[in-house]
Amino acid sequence: MDDFRSLRILDTFKALFIKLDIDYPVMRRILQVKLTLDERRVPSIFNGEVKKEGSIYLKTLALYAFYGLILIPFIILGENYMFQMSLVFGVILFILMTSMISDFSTVLLDLRDKSILNTKPISRKTINAAKIIHVIIYMSFITSAFVAIPFAVGLFTKGIGFSLIFLVEIIIVNIFVVVLTAILYLLVLRFFDGERLKDIINYVQILLSVGIVIGYQILLRSFDLATIDVEYVFSWWHLFIPALWYGAPFEMLLHQQFSTPMIVFSSLAICVPLISFYLYNRVMPSFERNLQKLMTETGSNKKKWAGIDSFFSKIMCRRKEEQIFYRFASKMMTQEREFKLRVYPALGLSILLPALFVFNDLRMYSLSEVSNGKTYFALYFCNLMIPGVIHMLKFSGTYKGSWIYRSTPIQYISSIYSATLKAFFVKLYIPIFLINSVIFIWLFSPRIIPEIVLILLVAVVQIILTYRMINNEGYPFSQSYEFAQEQQTANNLLLFLITGLFVVGHFIALSIPLGIYIYMMILLVIIVLGWRVTFPKK
Amino acid sequence: MIVQTEKVLSIKDLTMSYGSKKVLNGIDLEVHRGEIIGYIGPNGAGKSTTVKIMLGLLEGYKGKIEVFGEDISTGTYTYKRKIGYVPENAEVYDNLTASEYLTLTGELYGLDQKFAEHKAYSLMHHFGMEKVFHSRISSYSKGMKQKVLIISSLLHDPDLLFWDEPLSGLDANSMMIIKEILIQLANQGKTIFYSSHIMDVVEKISSRIILLAEGRVIADGTFEELQNQSKEGSLEQIFNQLTGFNEHKSIAEKFVEKVNEGQSNG
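ok -> structure tokens follow
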């Protein structure tokens, strides 16, 4: 447990805390433990990379600093503050809000606090102060990592006035985000149970992972297109976009634009956080009470309709044993939060990458040119997710439950994995592939349908290949995620290359008359034989 | 208690080692129909290991094990149909709901999906847990999880039960229900093999007690037989005596001494 620099900075305010009747040494000790715990936690932005204590935290900050670079062009390009700074604050709000929810929910929702701290002779005030300071330390780290470089750039290119507004707004935004998250949780907890809240946090984590990658892609691509010399026109619904509130003060103060919308926006920027802070203080006790919900075993007791899984299990699997595991695997894939967190971002990318590629093409060529071309090969991007997801099928957060595979009378052990792969194909791959196919058929005309079928067959071959290369033994959902990163990258690279080989095969097939159909037949034979060999009946 | 002659389980000279560490040093056992066997021993004596081997959860043992007359080393799986198992640490796929999990295990034991779900619901209902039937198991308390596991081991009406610490996490009332269930099942001719650290429970409901220490059976018989053998009153005392443990007083004394110690520098 190292001594933290943030704590030493905090020490300078020691007198203030003591004046507020807070037991400073105790609070400091609590914070020290919490910060140590944070160091050992893997933030979701890393998608659960190798666990190495200490350095992780710095790496996160470095990553935030890197993401922060995206703000620079918006700051230096032009003088249209309403647009530029609204965008900047939009990004800041997004990053802070999502990282707050995904990585810092644990602090706001920590119940161990209750049984560990509240049972000790420590005043409530001290505990709450520790909680708040903890959040603030974390948020100020992230914020400063994220905006430090853009801020310096702003200072040099736009001067002191600009930087002052920037600084004040950043502080307000910080408070706003913390309070808003707390209020959001409060609302969720009032109307739903703890399980639902955990689900929401899970989705936000997924959103963050996808959002960062996609956001980067889109922003970088659309940048040269951006024509930001447009005059800002006010509409009433703009009032509900917080990013605009924070763009307005720059416009108002630096361009002396004292129009009504600007004044309204600027006052919203200051008043809303203040009001929510006041609200937060008022509702904090009821928040604590509602937190208890997380511990109690409420939870919806509605039966989930599983008709689709049942239906497909009968179509996809002949043996009853396999059908059982098909349904089991489908549930595991859709209900396990940790699995979703690790896999769904990749799925999100699979939906968007092919579209991004075509979009890129559309900027350079006309629609008719593109639709006669071969950009639909971008559909192969869907297949890139296969190795990663299949690799993840080995793991589960509750992997210790896997004893049921062995304690129950299962005739063909191989049916466990064959069913799991089928469930992956139907439940995760097909929907994404279908969405993309529909878009692509609409863009490229139905002439590409045979080739879409071909790509689907390639996907099946890849599933078998991947399984043989990286799983091939053991049971699904039976290992701890701790081991999830081992020797994955090398294999994945190889498997990506294999996708490339299939693409080459596709090109060759196109140059031969009826080549596509011959290729399909070959793939079908590989699938049938491969499946039989991989999942023997005996 | 009448000991029936039908042999359900037999273990001959079972040894098992993890690497160079020997955990089982030659266990011999015969279990007959209708017996309630309390399998006791200090932590690390090899209780769970024996049970896991019999279920095929662990491989690499030496010796011969027959369950329902079938040698389990042949890779057979059918004998498991008549076995119900509650594992030691309540580990389940707890992101599933009780309904989903119980239906899954029921089906794996060969029940029909609808039937399994129905039966699971009624059993949950009798434990007063029908309200959480469709909630994720992760939201359950330890005792509720344990009850789900007990139900999952009984859904298919097995003839032989392996329960590893079935009472952990249960409150006194639930414990009484489970004890009564055990007795009634045994009266029907089912065989129950369970381990526990709660000595008075073992003392009261077991028709036979097997004491294991350092991978060996060091006592085997009814409670009365064990009493005669060791000349001690309670199972707890027998347990202490047979495992050669009589330092509890001196250890406690040293411990309390440390608790009372004041702060030396401040």
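Chain A has a mean pLDDT of 80.
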